[in-house]
Specification:
Largest sheet: 5 strands, antiparallel
CATH architecture: 4-Layer Sandwich
Strand content: 15-25%
Strand order of the largest sheet: 8-7-9-15-10
Helix content: 25-40%
Shape: globular
CATH superfamily: Chorismate synthase AroC
Length: 391
């Protein structure tokens, strides 16, 4: 695949790092755009105290000169300001044994990576697991995803997201379309698609906080301007729907992904499940609906790419859940550290980043090109060819 993304860093370590390889030369980087996406990831009613400490900024450390990509790997650093409070515990070399002992975690949280990761690596202190498994890592992905969004924008493709549900408060009116996502107000408390239900969402967050509990929800994420023909039906690992699904499922706490209206379609007959084909007024082939979410057999069909990510409630509960203290073998309540009541709005921003990465990867797979101007000219030829089909 043309694009490769690797991230490094721990939640309370010195910094996060993203290495994004495969972006063509000639793409102008707007650092303010990247920082705005990082700020959007930190936004949302129900977030914890960490958001008051961190004010994320992307530090471009390689692959960019004079604001333009060079074609080489792009390195992005994000400082963890909270490291100042954790340096005796999370320094790569200079640690204080007494401070480490005080911060040692031995009571795994159900639903988190704590116990499974401890079993995998043999960790006696589960902090070795939770620091990397923390959703803090997603900041690095959002920064890299913002670069991918800049590339897609140059190619006439836009990516957005919005909250469909939070806890038991569900948006049952908004169509699953990009037009719905264009209604989202970024300065609203929870980035809901239907602003009229945000008050009920806020009340649900307040109730969960009083109970020492957490809430999950669902996020609509989509892209418009995506040309037909990206992805492949020929090989299972190149099917674009599977790649989108894998990318969205990699987001912390996301446990299910729906493409288009596939759940509703599965409950009815085929005559109501598929998108009938017609020739538009411009003479081009199009679908009358978009139940498939812009994807058929692993290939984009020219309609909007639409997906829903379902996020479970966060695993760190103030009231805790039944667990076992690995140090004593005794029953205990799970550990609690500063956390969020909900992070559903932030999850949408991460979903945008992951969808942008997959679409940019598929785009470059189709167009090739080491320079942005080549990518754009080949994409223009591809779009023209699709419009002429089958002529």
């Amino acid at each position: 695949m043309p694009l490769r993304l690797v991230t490094a860093g721990e939640s309370h370590g010195p910094r996060l790092t993203a290495i994004l390889e495969g972006i063509p030369a000639g793409l102008r980087i707007d650092p303010d755009f990247v920082d705005r996406d990082l700020a959007r990831r930190q936004h949302g009613y129900g977030r914890g105290g960490r958001m008051k400490i961190e004010s994320d900024r992307a530090i471009f450390e390689g692959g960019v000169r004079g604001g333009v990509t060079l074609g080489s790997p792009i390195a992005i650093g994000i400082e963890n300001r909270d490291f100042a409070n954790w340096s005796k515990v999370m320094h790569p070399f200079e640690n204080d044994p007494a401070a480490e002992a005080e911060r040692r975690l031995t009571r795994p949280r159900p639903g988190h990576a704590d116990l499974a990761g401890g079993m995998k690596y043999g960790a006696k202190d589960l902090r070795n697991v939770l620091e990397r498994a923390s959703a803090r890592e997603s900041a690095a992905r959002v920064a890299a995803g913002a670069v991918c969004k800049l590339l897609l924008s140059e190619c006439g493709i836009e990516v957005r997201s919005g909250v469909l549900s939070l806890g038991s408060v569900i948006d049952e009116r908004s169509p699953r379309s990009f037009a719905s996502l264009e209604k989202v107000r970024e300065d609203s408390p929870l980035r809901a698609i239907d602003g009229s239900i945000e008050k009920r969402m806020v009340e649900a967050v307040d109730a969960a906080k009083r109970a020492g509990d957490t809430l999950g929800g669902s996020i609509l994420v989509g892209a418009k301007g995506v040309p037909a023909g990206l992805g492949s039906y020929a090989s299972w690992d190149r099917k674009l729907d599977s790649r989108i699904g894998a990318a969205l499922l990699s987001i912390p706490a996301v446990k299910a992904v729906e493409l288009g209206s596939s759940i509703e379609a599965s409950r009815g007959p085929g005559s109501l499940a598929h998108d009938e084909i017609e020739r538009g007024r411009d003479g081009n082939l199009r679908r009358r609906s978009n139940r498939a979410g812009g994807l058929e057999a692993g290939v984009t069909n020219g309609e909007e790419v639409i997906a829903v990510a379902y996020m479970k409630p966060l695993s760190t509960l103030a009231k805790g859940l039944d667990s076992v203290d690995l140090a004593t073998g005794e029953t205990a309540r799970s550990a609690y550290e500063r956390s969020d009541v909900t992070a559903v709005p932030a999850c949408g921003v991460i979903a945008e980043a992951m969808l942008a990465f997959v679409l940019a990867d598929a785009l470059l797979e189709s167009t090739g090109g080491d320079r942005l101007e080549d990518v754009k000219s080949r994409l223009a030829a591809h779009r023209a060819r699709v419009r002429r089909y089958p002529r």
